[in-house]
Amino acid sequence: MTDAERFRPLHPAMLEIIGRLDSDFEVERTEGYGLDEELKRDLSLAGPCVRLSPRDTHAAPIAVAFSAFPGLHVRFGRWHTEPFPVCGCDACDESAKDQIERLTKLVDEVITGGFCETIENPLIPFIGHGWTTAKFWSPVGSYSSGSRLDGLRAREMSGGRLRLDLDWKPWSRRYIHRVHLFGRHDV
User: Fold this and answer.
1) For burial by CB atoms within 10 Å, which of 44, 47, 130, 156 has the most?
2) Is 103 helix (H, G, I), strand (E, B) or coil?
3) How far apart are the first and last CA of the chain?
4) Residue 62 dihedral angles phi and psi, to the nearest 5°
5) Global confidence as pTM
6) The dihedral formed by the CA atoms of 33, 99, 141 and 105, expressed in degrees to the nearest 10
7) CA–CA separation, 88 vs 104, rounded Å?
8) How far apart are CA 17 and CA 104, in angstroms?
9) pLDDT means over runs of 10, the chain (187 residues)
């Protein structure tokens, strides 16, 4: 990797997205270094993590760790994390522009309810592996990923259920009341 600094635009782009989401949607914004220990594991942080938690608990939260690389690790929902960039090496030829577009697309799918997560446990408890999957979708396409989990970890994550599906709902928009000259209120 010869030019990690090419990813520096990811930080201000994410801060802009966070600002937009915080002002447009019914969310609680939390910042701090201890918000998501798993998300920031193995990262050298460039600043505090930020979590946006929709007031509707059926809508997926988004948490962001800003790495000193410079890059991002983003948690969508309860379990699914995505790195931006995915790799960053010269051979992969990723660009900040491409990563910002990917980030924006995934965020838009989450806030419109185009996101679900699943945990599946092994049929026989304590033997074998579990599986986690995440799916993002919009009218123009879909993206899914999955990974194998230790069976005990999968059971812990699913609360002991054989399968847990989280079909996240759209985020609720903030409504700002405006008073017009004639005393009418608009939403």
Assistant:
1) 130
2) helix
3) 51
4) -130, 130
5) 0.88
6) 50
7) 18
8) 8
9) 85 97 97 87 86 97 94 95 87 90 97 97 79 95 92 89 96 74 55
